[in-house]
Each structure stands twice: as C-alpha cells, then as structure tokens.
Amino acid sequence: MKVTTIAPANIAFIKYWSMKDPQLFIPNNNSISMTMSGCKTKTTVELTDNQDDLVEVKFFQSEYKKLDRKEIKQQNLFQQIARIRTLSGGNQKVKVKSENNFPSDAGIAASASSFAALTAALFLVYGLKDKFDDRKELSRQIRLCGSGSAVRSAMGGFVEFIAGHDHDSSYAKQIADEHHWDLVDVVAVVDSGKKKYGSSEGHKIASTSPYLATRLQEIKPRIKKVREAISEKNLENLGPLIEADSTSMHAVMMTSKPPLFYWEPGTMRLMKDIISWREEDGLQAYFTIDAGPNVHVICEKKDAKEVAKRLKVNPFVKSTIYNEPCAGVRVSQDHLF
Q1: Do the Cβ atoms of 41 and 117 come closer than 8 Å?
Q2: Which spans of this chain does the record mark as coiled coil (predicted)?
Q3: What is the pLDDT of residues 82-129, one digit of tens each?
C-alpha cells in the first residue's frame, strides 16, 4: 500500500519559544498561525517487506538524501514511524520519500510541514484513517514527531495550538478556515542557508534569558487580541500585535546564554522599510520573523502586488514566496515514487 500527503508550513502570529515538557514537546504558551499555500512538503509512504525503514528526503534545490537513524536529529522521526506502526498492530517496515518546495532550516517552518505530512501518511498507510480524520487527535500525534509548530499544520487557515499540560490537553484548534480572510504572507528570503542554531537548541536555553518570564506574561492578553483580530478580519489591530510578539521572542533569543542572533543586516533593513511603508505611504504591511533571518510580510491580498514589487527591488531580498491561507495536511494521488 502507498499513500502520499501534502502539508503546508505555517507562519506563527503568536509564537512559542521554550518548552513546558520537552519529552512531549509541549510549549509554555499557546501559539496562533496561518497556513502557507506556497510552502509545502510532499511525502510518499509505502509498506515494504524490507528489514529496515528507509527514509529519503529532498531538501529545497538539492538531491535526495538517505537519513541515518543513528543521527540524533533524525531519531524523533524514526521513533514516530515505530510508534505509529505499534499503534496499528502491524509489523511491516516503510519506504518514505519526502521533498520540500522551499528552504529548510531558514525560519520558514520546514519541520512543521515535514512532520505533519509524515505523520498523516503513516496513519493512512497503517490503516488508522480514523486518527487522520480526527484532526484534533491527528494534531496531538503530529506533536510527538518533535515539532510543536507542526501541530498547527493539521488544520487549514488560522489555527491555535493549545499548549495544555499533558498529551491529551495539547492539540490544535481551528480559529477560522482558509476561506475566512484574504490575508497574504509574502516571504522575503534574505538568506536561504541553514541556520547555525536550530529551534530545539533554542528552546532548551530560553530559560536563561531574564526576559522569558516577562514575555510569557505579555502573551496571555496578546493572544486573546490576536484571536479577536482574526475573527474580525482587522489587520490594523492584528499587525502591531504580531510585530510585538516577533520582536519579543527575538529579545529572548538575543538575551539567552549563549545569545542567539538570527537576524542578518537585510532582516533589520526590511523591518525598518516595512514600518516606513506604513508611516509614509499608508501601505498596511507588517513583519513577523521566526527563528531565522527571513521576513514574513503580512498584508491583505489587495496590497500583495505592491508589497512584492517593493521587495523585488530591495537589494537584500534574494527571492520572495507568495502565500495565502490554505487547507491543512491532505491526501494527494501524485506519488513521489
């Protein structure tokens, strides 16, 4: 049996940076995101009679690479395969091929789409369709693959990851579907290279920042306001909230031990440019930045062409990726092998 799934990345409007339970990948706070139509992972999984699981991945603009289960970074992935196989009561190994259409390890949530696509495909290939169809349960299971952000790719549109306190209470909840609001994320790629410090390392040292406690307190009222702004489709309310949350998270990163500096010169230049677009030209665009140098420019669809035009002539921007809200992880009949 062979199954292929496609999962989108997502851009967090309210982010998390620190873990409550590292074993269950439960963060310290809820987060809210929008799925990204232009950044996706396709994964094909097939049951085989081989002695071992085989996983091959093709990162953006590269060739397929076989993953080694002995590498620490890959262990969660192989453990997820074994765990879902055990849940199904089956014993057949799997062949997995997966590829991204956007840069990995660059602050565009490649692990989110990858882990969501893999988990969904595994449930289907092992005959656990009920878990795939139950998106709340699917989101819980996706989390165990090793990425809290991946939880939010289980559903489409605007999604909140309820952090909770244990496995059952930690899951995704849809705020509004992909048809709710014509919001756009134009990603300005400043640097597509692999970042030096991954998110997992960053979560571990977040508690060394003197500003983490303040950030966690600030998030409680902010997340309520973000929910309301999405429901009301009010970008003038949403924009300042997402910029504040992004800057707050990076303040924690920069003041941890050791400090983590993800921004490049182009990142800072774009942040300033976007603010001036609003103040001088009235262009309603706002920035948010994940754990990387690339800038997500959030605007309404009617302003997306103007935003893209301005980014195109910016000397720091290597390329752009256009995204609208889209469906969560889904089945495809277009297999990779």
Answers
A1: yes
A2: none
A3: 999 999 999 999 999 999 988 776 556 688 999 999 999 999 999 999
Q: How many angstroms separate the CA atoms of 196 and 51, rounded? A: 35
Contact 320, 26 (CB under 8 A): no
Check if the beta carbon of residue 112 is closer than 8 Å to that of residue 10: yes
Distance from C-alpha of 9 to C-alpha of 71, rounded to nearest angstrom:
24
- The pair of structure tokens assigned to 75 is 């262990």
Whether pTM exceeds 0.90: yes
CB 127 within 8 A of CB 90: yes
What domains are defined for the chain?
A: 2-179+327-332 (3.30.230.10), 183-323 (3.30.70.890)
Using DSSP's 3-state secondary structure scheme, residue 173 falls into strand
d(CA 259, CA 45): 39
Give percent above pLDDT 70 in the chain: 98
User: Mean of the pLDDT values across residues 68-78?
Assistant: 86
Give the mean pLDDT of the chain: 96
Q: Would you mind telling me the total number of residues written for the chain in this entry?
A: 337
- State the DSSP string of 75-137: HHHHHHHHHHHHHHT---EEEEEEEESS-SSSSS-HHHHHHHHHHHHHHHHTT-HHHHH-HHH
